[in-house]
Amino acid sequence: MPLLRMRRMTAAAVALVAAGAVAACDSAADSSQSVTSGGTLRVVMTQLPSHLDPQKIAAALDSNVSRLLSRTLTTYKSEPGAAGSELVPDLATDLGRPSENNTVWEFKLREGVKWEDGAAINCQQLKYGVERNFSSLFKSGLPYAKLMLADNATPYEGPYSGKELDSVSCDDSRTIKFKLKQPTGDFNYTVALSVFSPAKPGADGDKDAYDLRPLSNGPYRVEPRISPDKITLIRNEHWSSSVDSVRKAYPDKIEIVKNENDPAVTNALIQDQGGDRNSVLLNSNVAPNFLQQVVNDPDLSKRTATGPTGAVRYFAINTKLVKDLRCRQALVYAFNKRKYRQAMGGSIIGDLATSMIPPGLAAHAKFDHYDTLLDGDGNEDKAIALIDQAKNAGVTCPDTINVALPDNDTIARYVKTMVDAYLRIGVKVNLKRLDADTYWDLIADSGHSYQLVYAGWLPDWANGSAVIPPLFDSSLVQPPGELSGSNYSFLKDAEVDQAIKEATSEPDLARQYKLWGELDGKLSQMAVTIPVLYPNAIRMSGSNVGGLFIHSQFGMPDLAALGLLDPTIATDVASSPS
User: What total number of domains does the chain contain?
Assistant: First the structure.
């Protein structure tokens, strides 16, 4: 997906010398036994997926779950380490055939893939799925279809208008063709996103209901939900491993439960009793107060997977509310990244960030325009000097700012470190805790009143093209009341847009990487975000769970690889009580 790769990276840790080596490399949980088919896996999350309708998905967490329900033309191997970043065919028979200078891409669908109702998937359903992205009914979801596909002469408004998108065509029931706005050499990575999944016309008549229970073509289908804090997946009897070599689909059932109490969940996994042996902590780290115990105990560390998430944790600066460059730069200089990271547990949690393109990507450029690596505590003197310069020029920088964050105690503890840092430069901070389940939509509305918003991004594929356009392209910014995709800074800059176009069209990959890195540096100087951390993941499971590793594409354990060592052990004890 590279999906938003926007996720709640709720980190945890204790400053711990003995644990220092854990964050330095990828590590999969150790198991001398093999995962076996059957049983019930319990997956514990701090929040349930915001969306299951594939065209509405923008978060890595949602995409991880969606891969069990909605297949795409291409996808990523379900393997640890670098192997997990390898693109492989999924619904398609190969990785696509580009032509006309990479402006046309064609894919052939494999035979034998079926929906949960037994009907075969065809090209028209893939076309319909892509067309849904253009409808005003889909205000969430990643923007790549609109950004990359050639639009109709009259702007396309989605399939519900009775019209078709001319840039997606079906030569026959198994051949789909995409026409792009400009040459794109990595479009086959784009179609690995959930938003390019097929949809069956008519099955999505009730949009809200479909978001809770989409028609599945993956190894699992969704049982009707009886609790707002639980999703149950059961086997799709029409899925076959003979036409899906990626998803392991070991468990008979997967119970996804919401629990925001990280310490309680961690303690239950450590105690490893009853159904907790079948549980895994998916999108949140081992709680800080248990980290030293987990890392230093050989038995517990064997049940822990660690490694870089490949993401960046940052705060977007609202350029509509903080218009002056000097005022924005002052906010960047004054931010105390070291103190923020210390609240999360120290250096084991990750490296201090200076860029939006993370270090694991070839497009990453090394720059440090605000002296983060020299002094992670920030520079209040430079911040105050910039505020004074603005004042002398007749511009008043805000002396009170609203900072939006999800309503989560763990995240709030980290973000509170901003309060003292900004008071030192005469800026009062009001922390605004927003509903976690709708948070990403709330901060995407350009009419909101928050000067800074807590955010995170995991590249949708391994290039700057999966970072810069979805976060900073002007075309994403919509009027108040509508969603502006992932451009949380609401940046509208013609020079940036032109640079995005040039980098996207560059056929030489090495040159393209350089262009993305240079643009990342320019955006840093424009102070439209505050990159804080390149976070690490430290995720734990019960003793009966196998296949645990941090997938490079999701920054968390890969649900498609998890299973039980002994499926006869029942998940019959409430896991991790609230």
Answer: 1
